[in-house]
Amino acid sequence: MKIGEIVEKSGLTERMLRHYESLGIIVPRKSDKGTRLYSDADLAVARLIHRMRMLDVGLDSLSAIAQERLNHKTGDASSSAVGDLLNELAELLSEKAQQALALRSEIVEASKMVARCKGCENIPASETCPDCPMNEAVDQNAVAAMVWK
């Protein structure tokens, strides 16, 4: 595939792809005339980078993982070092997943509080609706506070 096709299929821009190439994360082969030619594996890596970036995984981590094997003379040493980096990334993603689940719970709780206001005829403000459940929710839930304040 040429760069336009991989841009279309990966969700990345041409500029992003070139930047990832400069970091050694994607390494397309080149034709005799210097045209970048991307494989299906390059496309898979491009899509992976896109997903990782959406989760705010740093490019330094991705670059380190992509290039670590080049720093070693044996498969054993490479395997150990790359394995450590992958385990660190897995731990980082586990932490992000836990944070996302906690935030989701807070959002769901705020949504339940907001739903209790359905059918209310009052102007939605603490001054005009002093008995509103949202008045209590703001002290317990930051999402509710964002909605109500």
Characterize the structure shown.
With about 150 residues, this protein is mostly helical. The chain has a domain at about 1-70: Multidrug-efflux Transporter Regulator, Chain: A, Domain 2. The chain is about 65% helix and about 5% strand. The chain has helices at about 5-10, 15-20, 40-55, 60-65, 75-115, 135, 140-149, and strands at about 30, 35. The protein has a two-stranded antiparallel ribbon with strand order 1-2. Strand 1 and strand 2 form a beta hairpin. The radius of gyration is 24 Å and the shape is elongated. The N and C termini lie far apart (about 50 Å). The mean pLDDT is about 90.
Per the CATH scheme, the topology name of the domain at 1-68 is Multidrug-efflux Transporter Regulator, Chain: A, Domain 2
Q: What integer value in Å does the Rg equal?
A: 24 Å
Number of helices: 7
Shape: elongated
Write down the secondary-structure element order.
HHEEHHHHH
Proportion of strand residues: under 5%
Indicate the CATH class of the domain at 1-68: Mainly Alpha
The spatial strand order of the largest sheet comes to 1-2
What is the percent of helical residues?
Answer: 55-70%
Largest sheet: 2 strands, antiparallel
For the record, the CATH architecture of the domain at 1-68 stands as Orthogonal Bundle
**Class inferred from helices and paired strands:** mainly alpha
Low-confidence stretches: none
Termini gap: 52 Å
